[in-house]
Design goal:
- The complex is a heterodimer of chains A (650) and B (583).
- Chain A contains 20 helices and 18 strands.
- By secondary structure, chain A is an alpha+beta fold.
- Chain A has a six-stranded mixed beta sheet with strand order 12-15-16-9-17-18, sandwiched between helices. A four-stranded antiparallel beta sheet of chain A has the order 4-3-5-6.
- In chain B, 63% of the residues lie in helices and 10% in strands.
- Chain B is built from 21 helices and twelve strands.
- In chain B, helix 2 runs antiparallel to helix 3, helix 7 runs antiparallel to helix 10 and helix 7 packs parallel to helix 11.
- The C terminus of chain B is likely disordered.
- Classes of the chains: A alpha+beta (650), B alpha/beta (583).
- The interface between A and B is large, with 193 and 198 residues.
Chain lengths: 650, 583
C-alpha cells in the first residue's frame, strides 16, 4: 500500500498490540464518565426535562403503592359498613388515580423519547468529533495503527454507548431517586436501624466494586480484542487475493480462531462477572433482611430506645415490620439496576478506547504563512479574491506588516537529516535545489530514500535536522494545508474512493467543471477507457476502484492531480503500471500542463526520467550524483550503471 | 433464519439449556423467599417470637444462598453460552468468507463483511444472553401469576386476558414500523465503515489534497443519517414501556373497581366470593405481572434490533460461493503446461464487453512466457484465470492438460504461484511472511528463495534481518523490496507454474535482470509467465504474447515479433529511443 519508509527500512518497535493475555491489564481511563457527560452538555434542557419526568413517573409509582395500601382501609371497608353501598368515593379515587397514572405514563413516554434524542445526538457528536480529530493525526499514526482496530471504534465501541445512555442512565437515575426516598423514610423510622443499613450498604458496595472491577478489566480486554479481530478481518479481506493464491485459507483461519478464542474468553469472563452481580446483590439484600429482623427483634425485646425523625421512643414491633418492608424497597432497585451494570461497564470500556483515539496528538502545525491567489498591481503583488493563475505566499510579520512572496516552486534542501525512528537516519546531509520550472528526477536503487524526500516536502514527516525552504520560506512556517495545496501528488499506491469517476477526478478541486475533468482525463490518456465503462464518467467505482486495472487506476490518479492544477507536482512512480507507449502519451500531456512549473519525478523506469532537467541519484540516503541525463551518461558513474544495467550483465 | 443461527450453538448447547434451568430454580427461590419473609414478620416479629425469627431467618439465609448459587450459575452459563455462540458465528462466517470468490466478496463489500462479523454478531450475542436469562423466566412468572390470580377470582382475572391482546397488538404495530428502519440503519453502518476504511487506507491522498474537511462532510452525512434513523426507530420503541404501563395500570384500576364491587357484593366473605385478602393478592400479582412484562419488553427490544443483524448474518452464511470444487476433483497437477482454449471472460456485468475475447494460447511445461500489452489490455485478467481466481465465462483453461475447474482448488493453487501486481505483505516478521509460501520451509530454503529473488541482501541489512517486523500493508519496506519479498514468498512454494504479474516494476533494471537470470538457471523446469512493461524483461522469453484490448494481437519470440507485430515494435522503439541504449 503506501510508501512510508523507503530507504533502509525502519522497523516498527511497536509489536503487534494483540497477544493473548500478554497485554498488561488495561483499566478505564480516569475521567471517562465526566468526559462522557461533557458531550451531553448540549442537551442540558432535555436532561432537566428527563429528570423531571423521571421524578414524575416515580411519584406516580409511589402514589400507586399508597393508593393500594389504603384502598381497602380507606375506601372498601367504609363501603362495607354502609347499608346501601355508595361507590362515589371509590370512583373519585379511581378517577384520580387514573389521572395520576396517565401523567406517569406520559412522563415515561416523554422521557424515553427525549432520551433517544439525547443518546443518539451525543453518539453523533462523539462520532463526528472522533472522525474530525482523526483527520488531524499525523501520517505516522496511520502507518502504525491497525485500520480495522480504528474502524472498530466507530462501530463497536460507539455502539456500547448507545444502550448505556438511552437505557441505563435513566434507570440508574430512577433507582437513585427510589433509594433516596426509601432512605429518608428509614431515617424517619429509626436512626439506629438506618445506621445498620448504611454499614451494610457500604459492605454491599465493596462487593460490587470488587466484582465490577474484575468485570471491567475483561470488558476492556473484550473491546480491545474485538478491535483486534476487526483489524485482522479487515487486513485479510483486503489481502484476500494473496490468501487465495497461496492457499493460505487454513492458516488464516487458524490465526483467526486464535483471536476469536481470545475474544470469546474475555467476553465470557466479563459477562460472567457482570451476571453474577445481580444474584449477589439480591442475596445480600435477603441477608440484610434477616439480620435486621434478628437485630431489630433483639433490640425491641431488650426495650432499647429508638431515635427517629418521627420522635424518640421505644422500638416498637410495628416500626420494625415497616422497616423490614422498607429494607426490601431499598435493595430491590439496586438489584434491578445491577443488570444495567454490564452495559455501563462495557460502555466505559468502549468510551476509554474512543477517548484514546481522541487524545492522540494531532499533527503539529505552527505555520502562519498562507497561500493566496494573487494579482500584480503596479508591479506589486496583491491578494486577489477570485481564482487567478498567480499564487502568492502571504507572510504576516511580527510588526503587523504583511508581505507577499510569489509562489514560484523553488524548493531547496539544506543539509537535511531524517529518520523515521530517532536512532536510525534514513537521509544523510541531503542538499538539493529545484528551481522554478525545473523537472527534477530522483533515481536510485530501491530503498535509497526517494519517497522519503517527497514525504518531507509535503511534511507527512518532519525533518530531524537541516532546513527545507520553499520560495525561500522555511516550510515549517507554512501552514500545512496551504503547503500541501501547493503540491500536487500522484502516489505510488493509487487509492480511489467510492463514487463516480467524475467525483474521483474532482477530488483535488471540488468546484471543477465536468469539462475540466474530462480535459484532464484526456491529458492523462484515461478518457478512452473511461468512456468504455458501463456508465462512462458516471460509472460508480467501488472497493478502491475494483474492476479497473492497476494501470487504469494510475491514469485516473494522474488525471485527478491534473484537475487540481497545482503549482508544484510530485510524481512518485506514477506510471509504474502503465505501459511505455501510453506513458509516452501521458508524459507529453503532463509536460504541457506543467510547463513553467516545478515537477519532482521518482521512477525506476529510466525512460520516465530521461528528459528531466536535473537527475539526482540517491544511494543509501545520500545524493551521490546530480546532473542532466547526458552529463550523467558521460560521467559513467552510478547513473550510467543503473541505466545500462542490462548490458553489464551480458 | 433462527434454525441457521441455532446451528452455531454446537458445543454450547449444554450451557444454553442449563441457563434457563438455573434461572427457573432461582425464580422458585424468588417466589419462596417473600413468603418466608412475610411469615417472619407475621409470626416472628409481630408475635415477638425470637426463636421463630431465628429459625425463619436461617431458612431464609439458606434460600438466599441457594438463590445466589443458582443465580451465579445461571449468569455463568449464560455468559458462556452467549459468548460461545458469538464465537461460533464469527468462526462460521469467517470460514465462509474464506470460501468466497471475489465476486462474492464484491457483492457484500469488505466493509460490510467486517461489520457483519463484529457489530452484528455482538448484537446477537447480547440478545441471546438476554433471551436465555429472561425468556423462560418472565413468561414462567407471568403464567404462574396468571394461574394464581385465576384461582383467586376467575372473573376478575379476565381483565388480564383483555389487556394482553391490546398489548400484543400494540407491540406488533411497533415491530412492523421499526424493523425496516433497523434494516436500513445497518446498511448505513456498512457505509460508515466503508468511508472510515477508505479514509484510513487513503490517508495520504486525503492529506496531499488537503481534503480533510471534505472527508468529514462525507462522514458526518452518514453519521447524520444513522442519527436520524436510529432516533426514529428508538423513538418508536419508546412506546413499548408506556404501553406496558398503560395495560397494567389500567388492569389494576379495573380490578380495583370491579374488585370493590365484588367484595361488597359478597359482604367480604371468602365463601361467597372475593374477600379483601384475595383482592390484595390479586393486586400483588398484577404488580408481578407488570415486572415480568417489563423484563419481556427489554428482551423484545433486543430482539427487534438483533433481528436485522440476524438477517445480515444468515445472508452471509447462506451465500453460495461461486467458485467451488467439482464433485470429483483431480488432486494432482501433472506438469506446468497451460492452455487457453477459446476463452471468453468478463467480470460479470453483462452489459460490459468481455475482458478476454476468444483467446487461444498454448504454453508447454517449463517454457518462459512474456506478456506485453497496453494499459487495460487484460494482462492481469489473463493470468488470474490460471490459478482459478476467477472462472471463465466461455471456453476453458487447462493446466497440465486438465481443466482448472476439475482440480481440487488448493492443489491447483499450490502448484500455480502468483506474485500479484498489487502486492500485499501482512503485519508480521519477514520470516512469517515468507512462510506463507511454505510453512515448513527451513532457513536454508528461505535464504535460497530470497537469494533468487535478490532479497537476501537487503534483508540482511535490516536490523533484525529475517525477524524484522513488517507493518500493516508493508509500509516500512520500499516498493521494490516489497516486490522482491513477494517473489521469494512465491518461490518457496516450489510451484510448477510461476506467474509474475508486473512484479518487478519497482525494481531497478539490473536487479530485474538478476532475478530473471536466477529464475532461468535455478528453476528451469518451472513454467514462468511474466507480465512486464519493459521489453527487456521479456525479450529472452521462449514465447511472447502481445495482448491488445482483450485479444492476443501477436505471439512469437522477440525477433519474430519485431518483424511481425507493429505494436511490439512500437513499444520496443519507445523504450529504446536514442538507439543502442536499451532499457
Amino acid at each position: 500500500m503506501s510508501l512510508r519508509t523507503k530507504g533502509v527500512p525502519s522497523v516498527s518497535k511497536t509489536p503487534p498490540k494483540t497477544a493473548e493475555g500478554k497485554t498488561p491489564v488495561r483499566r478505564f481511563r480516569p475521567g471517562t464518565v465526566k468526559r462522557l457527560f461533557s458531550y451531553m452538555s448540549d442537551y442540558k434542557i432535555q436532561i432537566v426535562l428527563v429528570v423531571a419526568c423521571i421524578l414524575l413517573s416515580a411519584a406516580a409509582n409511589a402514589a400507586s403503592s399508597l393508593f393500594i395500601q389504603r384502598l381497602i382501609d380507606d375506601y372498601i371497608a367504609p363501603i362495607l359498613l354502609e347499608k346501601s353501598p355508595v361507590f362515589t368515593g371509590l370512583l373519585r379515587a379511581i378517577f384520580l388515580m387514573a389521572c395520576i397514572y396517565l401523567a406517569g405514563i406520559l412522563a415515561t413516554l416523554f422521557y424515553n423519547r427525549v432520551m433517544v434524542v439525547v443518546a443518539q445526538g451525543t453518539l453523533k457528536k462523539i462520532r463526528d468529533k472522533m472522525f474530525h480529530h482523526m483527520q488531524t493525526l499525523p501520517v505516522r499514526y496511520f502507518d502504525t495503527h491497525s485500520f480495522g482496530d480504528t474502524m472498530s471504534r466507530y462501530t463497536n465501541d460507539i455502539d456500547t454507548l448507545r444502550q448505556m445512555i438511552s437505557q441505563s442512565m435513566p434507570q440508574l437515575f430512577a433507582a437513585l431517586v427510589n433509594v433516596t426516598a426509601v432512605f429518608l423514610a428509614m431515617l424517619y423510622l429509626s436512626f439506629e436501624l438506618t445506621a445498620f443499613v448504611v454499614v451494610f450498604t457500604f459492605l454491599i458496595l465493596m462487593v460490587v466494586r470488587k466484582i465490577a472491577g474484575k468485570s471491567s478489566v475483561f470488558f476492556m480486554r473484550q473491546q480491545d480484542s474485538l478491535g483486534d479481530v476487526n483489524g485482522y478481518i479487515e487486513e485479510m479481506i483486503n489481502g484476500q487475493k494473496v490468501v487465495k493464491v497461496f492457499c493460505h485459507e487454513e492458516k488464516a483461519e487458524e490465526a483467526f480462531d486464535r483471536k476469536n478464542g481470545e475474544l470469546c474468553y474475555c467476553s465470557t469472563q466479563a459477562n460472567q462477572y457482570g451476571n453474577v452481580l445481580m444474584p449477589v446483590l439480591f442475596s445480600m439484600g435477603y441477608m440484610l433482611y434477616v439480620l435486621l429482623a434478628v437485630v431489630g427483634g433483639a433490640l425491641a425485646l431488650a426495650g432499647v430506645q429508638n431515635f427517629g425523625m418521627a420522635g424518640i421512643g421505644v422500638l416498637t414491633i410495628g416500626t420494625i415490620a415497616s422497616f423490614l418492608t422498607l429494607s426490601r424497597a431499598f435493595v430491590n432497585p439496586i438489584g434491578q439496576v445491577s443488570q444495567q451494570i454490564n452495559l455501563v461497564i462495557m460502555a466505559l470500556a468502549g468510551a476509554s478506547r474512543i477517548f484514546d483515539l481522541m487524545d492522540e496528538e494531532s499533527e503539529a502545525d505552527n505555520g502562519y504563512v498562507t497561500l493566496v491567489n494573487a494579482k500584480i498591481e503596479n508591479g506589486e503583488i496583491r491578494e486577489a479574491g477570485e481564482r487567478t493563475d498567480l499564487w502568492a505566499w502571504k507572510h504576516p510579520h511580527r510588526d503587523g506588516t504583511t508581505t507577499y512572496t510569489r509562489l514560484t516552486g523553488d524548493i531547496r534542501f539544506f543539509d537535511v537529516d531524517f529518520g523515521y525512528e530517532d536512532n536510525k537516519t534514513v537521509l544523510h546531509n541531503v542538499t538539493l535545489y529545484a528551481e522554478p520550472g525545473q523537472k527534477v528526477a530522483f533515481v536510485g536503487s530501491t530503498g535509497a530514500g526517494k519517497t522519503t524526500i517527497t514525504n518531507l516536502i509535503n511534511r507527512f514527516y518532519d525533518i530531524a535536522d537541516g532546513k527545507i525552504r520553499y520560495d525561500n520560506i522555511n516550510i515549517n512556517k507554512i501552514k500545512k494545508a496551504d503547503l500541501r495545496r501547493s503540491l500536487g501528488m500522484v502516489l505510488q499506491d493509487v487509492h480511489l474512493f467510492t463514487g463516480t469517476v467524475l467525483e474521483n477526478l474532482r477530488y483535488g478541486k471540488l468546484d471543477a467543471t465536468d469539462e475540466e475533468c474530462i480535459a484532464a482525463a484526456r491529458l492523462a490518456n484515461a478518457d478512452g477507457f473511461i468512456r468504455m465503462l458501463p456508465d462512462g464518467y458516471n460509472t460508480v467505482l467501488e472497493g478502491d476502484g475494483g474492476g479497473l486495472s492497476q494501470g487504469q487506476k494510475q491514469l485516473i490518479s494522474i488525471a485527478r492531480a491534473a484537475v487540481a492544477d497545482p503549482p508544484v507536482m510530485i510524481l512518485d512512480e506514477a506510471t509504474s503500471s502503465i505501459d511505455t507507449r501510453t506513458e509516452a502519451i501521458v508524459q507529453k500531456g503532463m509536460d504541457a500542463l506543467m510547463k513553467g512549473r516545478t515537477v519532482f519525478v521518482i521512477a525506476h523506469r529510466l525512460s520516465t526520467v530521461r528528459n528531466a532537467d536535473v537527475i539526482m541519484v540517491l544511494e543509501h540516503g545520500r545524493i551521490v550524483e546530480r546532473g542532466s541525463h547526458e552529463k550523467l551518461m558521460q560521467d559513467k558513474g552510478r547513473y550510467y550503471q543503473l541505466y545500462t544495467g542490462a548490458f553489464e550483465l551480458e | 433464519m433462527i434454525k441457521k443461527l441455532a446451528g452455531s450453538i454446537r458445543q454450547y448447547k449444554k450451557d444454553s439449556i442449563l441457563t434457563p434451568v438455573y434461572v427457573v430454580l432461582e425464580a422458585i427461590m424468588d417466589v419462596v423467599i417473600p413468603i418466608l419473609m412475610a411469615n417472619l414478620i407475621d409470626y416472628g416479629i409481630d408475635e415477638k417470637n425470637m426463636p421463630y425469627v431465628m429459625r425463619m431467618g436461617a431458612g431464609l439465609l439458606l434460600c438466599a444462598v441457594l438463590a445466589l448459587l443458582f443465580g451465579a450459575l445461571a449468569g455463568r452459563s449464560a455468559a458462556i453460552a452467549s459468548s460461545g455462540l458469538a464465537k461460533n458465528l464469527r468462526h462460521d462466517m469467517y470460514y465462509k468468507v474464506q470460501e468466497f470468490s471475489f465476486s462474492n466478496i464484491d457483492k457484500f463489500s469488505a466493509a460490510s463483511i467486517v461489520t457483519r462479523l463484529t457489530t452484528d454478531v455482538t448484537n446477537i450475542q447480547n440478545a441471546y444472553q438476554m433471551l436465555l436469562r429472561v425468556a423462560i423466566r418472565s413468561p414462567a412468572m407471568l403464567i404462574f401469576c396468571l394461574v394464581v390470580s385465576f384461582r383467586i377470582d376467575a372473573g376478575l382475572s379476565m381483565v388480564f386476558l383483555l389487556a394482553i391482546p391490546v398489548l400484543g397488538a400494540g407491540l406488533l404495530l411497533v415491530i412492523s414500523h421499526v424493523h425496516p428502519i433497523f434494516q436500513r440503519v445497518f446498511r448505513t453502518y456498512d457505509r460508515l465503515n466503508n468511508v472510515v476504511q477508505e479514509n484510513l487506507r487513503a490517508i495520504r491522498v486525503v492529506k496531499a489534497f488537503t481534503r480533510e474537511r471534505y472527508e468529514e462532510k462525507k462522514f458526518t452525512d452518514i453519521s447524520q443519517s444513522i442519527y436520524e434513523d436510529f432516533s426514529k426507530a428508538e423513538k418508536r420503541l419508546a412506546f413499548n414501556m408506556p404501553l406496558m404501563q398503560l395495560c397494567v395500570y389500567g388492569s389494576m384500576l379495573l380490578i380495583s373497581w370491579l374488585g370493590a364491587r365484588a367484595i361488597v357484593a359478597s359482604g367480604n366473605n371468602p365463601a361467597l366470593g372475593l374477600s379483601t385478602g384475595g383482592f390484595m393478592g390479586l393486586i400483588t400479582y398484577s404488580m408481578q405481572i407488570l415486572m415480568s412484562l417489563m423484563m419481556l419488553s427489554m428482551v423484545f427490544v433486543m430482539i427487534i434490533i438483533s433481528r436485522a443483524s440476524a438477517e445480515r448474518i444468515t445472508e452471509l452464511l447462506d451465500e453460495e460461493s461461486s467458485l467451488k470444487n467439482c464433485a470429483d476433483p483431480v488432486p494432482e497437477v501433472k506438469d506446468g503446461s497451460v492452455s487457453f482454449e477459446d476463452v471468453v471472460f468478463s467480470y460479470g456485468r453483462k452489459t460490459e464487453k468481455p475482458v478476454l475475447d476468444h483467446v487461444d494460447v498454448r504454453i508447454a511445461s517449463g517454457q518462459t512466457v512474456g506478456i506485453i500489452g497496453g494499459t487495460g489490455s487484460s494482462k492481469s485478467s489473463f493470468v488470474q484465470l490460471i490459478p482459478r481466481l476467477y472462472d471463465v465465462t466461455g471456453g476453458r483453461v487447462t493446466v497440465g492438460g486438465v481443466d482448472v475447474r476439475n482440480y481440487d482448488l488448493s492443489s491447483l493453487r499450490n502448484q500455480v504461484a502468483m506474485v500479484l501486481q498489487k502486492n500485499v505483505l501482512f503485519s508480521g516478521t519477514v520470516r512469517e511472511n515468507l512462510l506463507w509460501g511454505d510453512e515448513n520451509a527451513t532457513d536454508e530454503e528461505m535464504v535460497r528463495a530470497c537469494k533468487l529473488a535478490q532479497a537476501d541482501g537487503f534483508i540482511r541489512e535490516f536490523p533484525d534481518r529475517y525477524d524484522t517486523y513488517i507493518d500493516q500493508g508493508g509500509t516500512n519496506v520500499s516498493g521494490g523490496q516489497k516486490q522482491r519479498i513477494c517473489i521469494a514468498r512465491a518461490l518457496l512454494k516450489k510451484p510448477k507454474i510461476l506467474i509474475l504479474d508486473d512484479s518487478t516494476s519497482a525494481v531497478d533494471t539490473k536487479t530485474d535482470a538478476l532475478i530473471r537470470r536466477a529464475l532461468r538457471d535455478e528453476i528451469p523446469d518451472t513454467t514462468k509467465i511474466i507480465i512486464a512493461q519493459r521489453i527487456s524483461s521479456v525479450q529472452d522469453a521462449d514465447l511472447i504474447l502481445v495482448l491488445d484490448d482483450g485479444k492476443i494481437a501477436a505471439s512469437g519470440t522477440h525477433e519474430e515479433l519485431l518483424k511481425t507485430s507493429r505494436i511490439y515494435r512500437e513499444v520496443y522503439e519507445s523504450q529504446n529511443e536514442g538507439g543502442a541504449v536499451r532499457e
